[in-house]
Amino acid sequence: xxxxxxxxxxxxxxxxxxxxxxxxxxxxxxxxxxxxxxxxxxxxxxxxxxxxxxxxxxxxxxxxxxxxxxxxxxxxxxxxxxxx
Length: 84
Fold this sequence. Notes:
Blueprint: H1 3-14, H2 22-47, E1 62-71, E2 74-83
Antiparallel strand pairs: 1-2
């Protein structure tokens, strides 16, 4: 006696999704990856104007300080970067 088997069969019958073979799943994955690679390759042409140029960006100065965090009665000490 397997009480879950009738529910599994009922769920399979009620499912509207068609079953896909492993080959079809792989083909869909390849298409999705190729589209993603094409978008990544054309990003600079389409959206590159939004990026700051390297000579316009300056590294921000910062200090490092020790900070103490309390959590449920326990303390943790960490280095924290603080911009100037």
